[in-house]
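Practice problem: predict the structure.
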Amino acid sequence: MKAIADIKLAPSILAADFTRLGDQVAEAERAGADRIHVDIMDGHFVPNISMGAPVVQSLSKVTSLRLEIHMMITGHLHRTVQRVKSLQKQVGVAINPATTAFVLEEILPDLDQVLVMTVNPGFGHQPFIYTTLPKIKRVSRMIGQLKRGCELEVDGGIDEATAQLTVEAGANVLEPDRRSLARTWACALRCRDCVAD
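Answer:
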């Protein structure tokens, strides 16, 4: 079983009150967040459009935490990964619930993180898709074989019960369920605590 220190929390700014975004990110940092999750949606890959570069630049001024940018965009995977790496940044790839883990086989050695979507991307407040648990296990095994040290994050429907299941399957980064930021933090801390039990 993973220790509490091995489990990282990445609250999404989509849970924040945007009129107080900077304050709420600072509150999350003080409460113990390990990084801040920023969803970028282009209106093509998913139907919604969200924030972009100006918001990310503004957030970098109010927190010392790593900003984890989840780009839900269309584009060429290998080219995008190489471009991010050329900027000396860490890079990860997300896979959707219906996407097979085997798409990662060729690109995994270039990654620092894999994010397994445990809901369909683009909308909050969805129930956890339990059929993603075997995929989390497969990705965890692939990481062990191809890229030790690569982080495995889960996003969507993460609460106290599903946190435990995903950590048992191999995840080490949790993005707690999006509610209000305060409720998300309460959930996140309970998730981290339940893993240690």
